[in-house]
Design goal:
384 residues; 12 helices; 4-stranded antiparallel sheet; disordered N terminus
Length: 384
């Protein structure tokens, strides 16, 4: 049998489960067959007429082994292909079960997303527009597209767009902004109770009981439709009516003198403590509070004492403090209320404090430290 005959035999084995069998096995088998043929030719005289029968048997056995190998390769290839398909195939969009407890969680999540956007704390940068004070939205919500993308987790695209349009926001200098006020919504949307769920294929109508106010037994019954699209989402805009929260008339607002305002403007542009030299300890404390309200943490750190024994953390460490760990504007106004009317009391050559009454927690003490240059600075932990 010549090489062409061998190739003809191998050609008949191409009808296999996968188009590419293991090439190494094919070469090994072909080499083994040629070695077997050479061995048989050398011993032809000994075996005589038995050679054709042995060669036929060898080819039959080789065919069986090759077929088994290719079938195994085919099965392994199919299994690998199926495993790969399972990894890349997106999750089924078949609706999951929707019951009353799940419906309650969906409503609470939808409202919380809405409330988080409505009362976004923003960047602390405010501006005047048409007689109303606005604040820029925080980075994650500084465009309508970002707001809609965030709402789509709980609402269908059409409902999310409508909800975003209903919010009292404006675009100013290319960024989204909102009135610099706080809002609250009517009804207790985060405490709803689903009393009826009627589902049909990928659509569900849920009837909710919505408490009119906290602790009240009076409820408002409404029905909303949800559509399944990679999760159950509300297809309508709930009546999240909101109203502005009135600020308390007793709220304290820091007021700087003309001299303090002038110094603060220069200090803001060039954060160097020498701009503060000559100011009284109370004026230094007021600028410290103003910088804290403006979230100018670089200015705040510059006003801390530079005496080595008093330093609590480095400027580099201060810059790494996350925003969540910073004191809120509300807390600053509450704690430092009345500091402008305080009294400075010096306790040693380099120590002193401002005694003041914030109207809520009684007498407070704001620590001051005189640096080696002879000027007063703020202690690292000013409230003692």
């Amino acid at each position: 049998m010549n090489e062409k005959s061998n190739d003809d035999v191998l050609q008949s084995l191409k009808n296999r489960p996968v188009p590419a069998p293991r090439k190494e096995f094919k070469r090994e088998l072909k080499s083994k067959l040629f070695d077997e043929m050479n061995s048989q030719e050398k011993s032809a005289k000994k075996w005589g007429k038995l050679v054709p029968n042995l060669m036929a048997a060898a080819f039959i056995l080789a065919g069986i082994f090759l077929t088994i190998e290719l079938i195994g390769v085919g099965r392994d290839g199919q299994n690998a292909s199926q495993e790969q398909d399972a990894m890349v195939t997106p999750a089924s969009n078949e609706p999951t079960e929707l019951n009353e407890p799940t419906a309650d969680k969906l409503m609470a999540a939808a409202y919380n997303r809405y409330d988080l956007i409505l009362n976004d704390k923003g960047t602390a940068e405010t501006f005047e527009y048409k007689g109303e004070r606005y604040r820029f939205m925080s980075e994650e919500f500084d465009s309508r597209d970002k707001v809609i993308h965030f709402l789509i987790e709980s609402f269908t695209p059409d409902a999310a767009k409508q909800l975003a349009e209903d919010l009292p926001f404006i675009v100013y200098k290319g960024k989204l902004a909102q009135p610099d006020v706080s809002y609250e919504t009517s009804y207790q949307w985060s405490n709803t109770t689903a009393i009826k769920v009627r589902t049909s294929e990928s659509m569900s109508d849920v009837t909710y009981e919505i408490p009119v106010s906290e602790g009240s037994r009076e409820v408002n019954v409404q029905r909303f439709r949800l559509i399944y699209d990679n999760g159950w989402k509300f297809s309508v805009v709930m009546p999240f009516s909101f109203r502005e929260v009135k600020k308390e008339t007793s709220e304290w607002n820091l007021s700087l003198t003309s001299e303090e305002e002038s110094v603060y403007q220069v200090f803001s542009q060039d954060p160097k403590e020498e701009h503060l030299h000559g100011l009284s300890p109370i004026s230094i404390a007021k600028l410290y509070v103003q910088a804290s309200l403006d979230e100018r943490h670089d200015l705040v750190y510059e006003m801390y004492t530079d005496r080595p024994d008093y330093i609590r953390w480095t400027k580099e460490e201060d810059e790494k403090f996350p925003r969540a760990d910073r004191v809120t504007k509300e807390s600053i106004l509450r704690v430092f209320k009345g500091i402008d009317n305080g009294e400075f009391i010096q306790t040693s050559d380099m120590d002193g404090y401002i005694k003041y009454d914030n109207g809520g927690e009684g007498d407070m003490g704001f620590q001051m430290v005189k640096d080696e240059d002879g000027y007063w600075n703020v202690g690292f932990m000013p409230i003692q």
